[in-house]
Design a protein that fits this description.
Order of helices and strands: EHEHEHEHEHEEH
Helix content: 25-40%
Radius of gyration: 16 Å
Number of helices: 6
Shape: globular
Distance between the termini: 36 Å
Length: 195
């Protein structure tokens, strides 16, 4: 990182959401290592909903798989039902099993970025820096609310909007290989398209 690439996260408030205390502590250590002095830990997405009703945050890092309300449901709530300006807060989702269907699900619910476990602090910092400098439009449409996703144009989905290959939210044996981080990045990378 060159001197011109440096960022100051000292005045950034980061909301960390994970039901696993060890993962929550690890995330807090990573963001603290980036210079962020204020990390708010929540051990449930529902607790984060209640917290966001009382205070503002600058960035949200959330695990996808949690009991009751999972990360996908939380991001859908954030993008559709949270008050302005909270609904525009950047969200980085953390996936333990980064199958293509799970990455699509995270992208489609309105996440700003998706990062696969094992989590690399260098990669996470790159994503945070990118989010800090981005100026993507925010889309508020009937079937999608979140950062502009016009990276590829395959047309509207057929039927009720679900893809044949989409997996259920139930945990179980992996049915396809995990995507590597480069493949995830290519899916999430904004590109110019002609409309």
């Amino acid at each position: 990182m060159t001197k011109s690439d440096r960022v100051n996260l000292a005045h950034t408030t980061v909301l960390l959401i994970d039901d696993q205390p060890t993962s929550l502590d690890m995330l807090a250590s990573i963001v603290q290592g980036f210079g962020c002095k204020e990390q708010i830990k929540c051990n449930s997405a529902q607790g984060a909903v209640e917290l966001l009703a009382r205070r503002a945050v600058d960035l949200i890092l959330i695990d996808c798989i949690m009991p009751e309300m999972d990360g996908y449901e939380f991001v859908r709530w954030l993008r559709r039902d949270a008050p302005t300006p909270t609904r525009y807060v950047p969200v980085i989702m953390i996936l333990g099993h980064a199958s293509q269907a799970k990455v699509h699900q995270g992208r489609d619910c309105g996440a700003s970025f998706i990062v696969a476990k094992p989590l690399s602090p260098a990669l996470l910092l790159k994503r945070i820096v990118w989010l800090g400098g981005e100026d993507r439009d925010f889309v508020d449409a009937a079937h999608y609310v979140g950062p502009d996703r016009r990276v590829r144009n395959y047309g509207p989905p057929t039927g009720d909007g679900r893809r044949e290959g989409d997996l259920s939210g139930e945990l179980g044996e992996a049915v396809e290989e995990n995507m590597d981080q480069d493949a995830i990045d290519m899916m999430m990378k904004p590109m110019k398209v002609s409309l």
